[in-house]
Amino acid sequence: MRSAACPSGARKTADRSQSLGARVMIPDWVTKMRLRARALLKRRQLDCDLREELSFHLAMRQEKYQVAGMTPEDAHLAARRRFGNLTGFKEACREMWTFSWLEDLVQDVRYGLRQLRRNPGFTAVAIITLALGIGANTVIFSTVSEWLLRKPPVRDPDRLLTVSSKNVVRGYSLQPTSVLDFEAWRTQNHVFRSMAAADMEVPFTLTGGGQPQPLIGDRVTPNYFNVLGISPVLGRTFLASEGEPGHDHAVILSHALWMERYSGDPNVIGRSVELDGEPYTIVAIMPPGTDMTIFTPSLWTPLVFTAHDLSAPARANRNLTVFARLKPGVTIEQAQAEMASLAGRLAQAHPETNKGWGTTVLRLQEFLIRSANVRRGLTVLLATVGFVLLIACANIAGLLLARGAARGHEMAIRSAVGAGRLRLIRQMLAESLLIGTAGGAAGLAISVWGIHLLRYGLEFNFYVRQMNGGLYLDKTTLIFALAVSLVTAILFGFVPAVRASKTNLCGALKEGGRTESGGRGRNKMRGVLVAGEIALALLLLAGAGVMMRDLVHELTENEGFNPNHLITAAIHLKGRNYQSPAQQAAFFDLVTEKLKQLPGIQSASATSDLPLAGGPGHVTFRIEAQAPLLPSKRPVTEDIVAGPAYFRTMEISLLKGRFFTPSDNTHSPVVAIANEEFARRFFPKGNVIGQRIKLDTDHPVWAEIIGIVGNVEDYVGQLSPDAQVYESYLQTPLPDMSLVVRSPLAPSAVAPILRRAVWSVDKDQPVGDAEGGVLTMSAVANETSGGDKLMASLMGVFAALALALAAVGIYGVIAYSVNQRTHEIGIRMALGARKGDVLRLVLQQGGLLTLIGCAIGFPLALPLPRLFAALFDGFSPQGSLVAVPACLVVAVVSMLATYIPAHRASRVDPMVALRYE
Amino acid sequence: MVLARYFHKIIMAERPNPGELLRDTLDMLILKTLARGAMHGYAIAEFIEQTSEEVLRVEEGALYPALHRLEIRGWVASKWGVSGNNRRAKYYRLTGAGRTQLAEETQRWGRMATAIARILETA
């Protein structure tokens, strides 16, 4: 100890004293940190100084004893005795100077790494298990981050509100509003600094050069961008004068459209483009990233209020989304109260259009989340992957517990030489953190791939296509993954660490490394974990089962028409050529007549609302034979406009009366066709044919019901049919219809035929719109049911993962216990137990765990259908019995996992087993 | 080998400092001793033992963690020098902050001793 070569700089430390003395005013911790940092850098120096200092003391003491007459040896020993634990004190001094926790940590990590490398099997299983759990969580969280957590791209988003119309009786909470209501709100409120309105998602056609391009645009009040606080990258926002009729031919392009169509040319400002056949001047380009989840317009034009919009009956036409910026100091609650009282006044002043209508005032972010309607689905998915992660944690905890038992001897030695429990726990936790970090990193890699896959799954309709662009591993998601890794590491590491540190010194050391008595408790703990895993896996499996059952139910239900071999395309007639209803009717008449002539086309027609596409709008109506009612008391039905050949083309069944014919036109009495549900609901006596009704549309007329047809589903999996009334488009034409064509040809062959037929009538008419081109009916159905399919398949994948992990878990426990009991099994066999007995012995153990798990999981799974029905629209609350097959699957899988080690146990050679250890 | 070192480290980190019980008192005694002038560790030990007439006989080693702790706190400063018998020794001296601290400690100790004495007398 004295011989160690001290660096020559030893004397330099003397300088410290001066500087220290002079700097007494420096805060305690600054000095400490400085000294410690220095100590960390000059580790050797410090050790030498310390050694020299202490040896000086001992030498002095020894000298004194020698002077008193002791032999040098005795004096040396006496001095040491007098000094006490030299190493201990030295260490205590060193401790003062160093960041001991940091060094300990480094040491813990280094030691942990060595331990993990020494057990590659354990390490691999733990990391893969965790990676799967964290990967699944990260993928789902990326959607949460994008759709629930991301603030909308506007200035001060928390003070930007939306005001929507609400009608409790009809079940609307986020309806748009009418022009007149918006004007009343805007002029009469005292809580908003400014209000803007937008007619969202208007189909536009960009023409001039090449094929007509269908686009989605927003028509916005000129102050829209000022209210939102978004500035263009080029040009200017709309002028107030551009909101006047006749001055509105200005257009602002989205960054994406600018890049795509004009390759980012800055000279487009001031250039003219043709929109719906009319010239518009490009006045600005918006920055990238203005998309708000489902609202992703390609362009904006000024919103003009026409004389019709401002007429009293137009109060019932609600199609404006209203944005409002709060005045400074006003709270959202005050705004809510103010708007509620305003709506109340309007309902009193205009009962025929506004009775029952209130307002919903929300922050923009909340409005977008509710409009996209993703929160509940994401919550269920997040809970699902959370459970998967819990199962993964339980598995790793189980492995660690087993390893803790195997390391009992090591722990005993450590505590024998003085390691405290805390120190042991810390060491074990360091190992867990290493697994957590590695699992997290691997999980991130998996999630990159998973998010890619998820985006691929989010293609089934226009909105999700628009929404999936924002899905990637963003910063929030990364932080989430990191936090989850650390939390799970502590979650799965803590109990095993505490257990492992609880060593029974004497026992463990005496037994000379053989399994010690703590084993039983550990096994019990592992059993509890595995039973919990089985319960969770059962719950997830039942959840996925309920989802899938509902999906199958949806897909196999009678839609009310024949969806096979049907091709459709949306047509939006725009511009001067189609201003009169007669022109609109003529267009669809011409196109369908043309299509019918073509080879391979069985029949063709047009409709305002395709089945399974989400459902037509509702209107109130009057029945001639019944006493007149106030508008708010009138019955409600769905209203569909269709061509004469529509029912034959769709193969909708006729129950009574007749279909429309081409002679039901403007020269003949107005007629209507009702569906079965309409007849049942409003004419229970069965006298519906010949009755006259008047729909409260823009041009209400009395129409005679001439036929009853079968119910048609509005969306896939509709639980109960709605009342439907069909009008003939020859009598009430519309500019926006969908062509439907029945043809045995392949869809890819029909699409060009359909396009050619349309273009032969009008070469500038786009076929299909920005939301979809020429589609098969099943693709249309998939637009509304695709989400359910994705949800069911995600739940299925996660449930399968949970089941696999639980199987690994029970396998691990049983295999371990068989391993531990090899000696015992050997004795049993030597005493005459047969293979079957041993097999039964082990299977019993697994069976008990499975039974407990199922007993916990089964009652939890029973209310799942009711839970989902409460969360999701159109979900059947029946189907609790799905828990039974789920239980069986779980039982079979876990017994299979038990069988492998049980089989191995039954083949134990008694001789080998007895020699074991 | 590495493992052994590791264990060693664990033991030492966990073991309570033998001087722990007397820690505050020992700190005060050291400061008081150094108030007489710079001294090395051995001299401090000798002084405390002799002055207290061997009543306060702790393991001498306990002195050093205490000295280092006081140094980190900035109450004492150290400097290498040469001792009477021509050996290199580390000398400690009281800093300004140490002097203030000593005054405070002495006062508190006095108050406490009085209080304890009062209790013992009345009881």
| Cα end-to-end separation of chain B | 59 Å
Major sheet of chain B: order of its strands?
1-3-2
Largest sheet of chain A: 6 strands, mixed, barrel
| Distance from first to last alpha carbon of chain A | 43 Å
Going by helix content, strand content and strand pairing, the class of chain B is alpha+beta
Helix content of chain B: 55-70%
Mean pLDDT of chain A: 86
SSE order of chain B in H/E notation?
Answer: HHEHHEEH
* Unreliably modeled segments of chain B: 1-21
Description:
The complex is a heterodimer of chains A (917) and B (123). Chain A has 917 residues and is of the alpha+beta class. In chain A, helix 3 runs antiparallel to helix 5 (86-97), helix 7 packs across helix 16 (421-457) and helix 14 (375-406) packs parallel to helix 18 (475-501). Residues 1-24 and 512-518 of chain A have low confidence and may be disordered. Chain B is of the alpha+beta class and 123 residues long. Chain B has helices spanning 2-14, 23-34, 41-51, 63-73, 96-122; strands at residues 39-40, 76-82, 88-94. Chain B has a three-stranded antiparallel sheet. In chain B, strand 2 (76-82) and strand 3 (88-94) form a beta hairpin. Mean pLDDT of chain B is 77; it is low at 1-21. At the A-B interface, helix 1, helix 2, helix 3, helix 5 and helix 6 of A face helix 1, helix 3, helix 4, strand 2 and strand 3 of B.
Topology:
The complex is a heterodimer of chains A (917) and B (123).
Chain A lengths: L13 H9 L5 H14 L1 H25 L4 H12 L2 H12 L2 H19 L1 H30 L10 E8 L4 E4 L3 H10 L3 E16 L5 E8 L3 H5 L5 E2 L14 E4 L1 H8 L9 E4 L2 E8 L13 E4 L18 E6 L5 H18 L1 H4 L2 E7 H9 L2 H32 L1 H9 L4 H37 L4 H6 L7 H27 L3 H6 L8 H38 L9 E7 L8 H17 L5 E5 L10 E6 L12 E7 L3 H5 L3 E4 L13 E5 H7 L9 E4 L6 E8 L14 E5 L7 E7 L4 H15 L12 E3 H44 L1 H9 L4 H27 L2 H8 L11 H24 L3 H6 L2
Helix pairs in contact in A: 3-4, 3-5, 6-16, 7-14, 7-16, 7-18, 8-11, 14-18, 14-20, 14-25, 16-18, 20-25, 20-27, 20-29, 21-24, 25-29, 27-29
Chain B lengths: L1 H13 L8 H12 L4 E2 H11 L11 H11 L2 E7 L5 E7 L1 H27 L1
Antiparallel strand pairs in B: 1-3, 2-3
Helix pairs in contact in B: 2-4
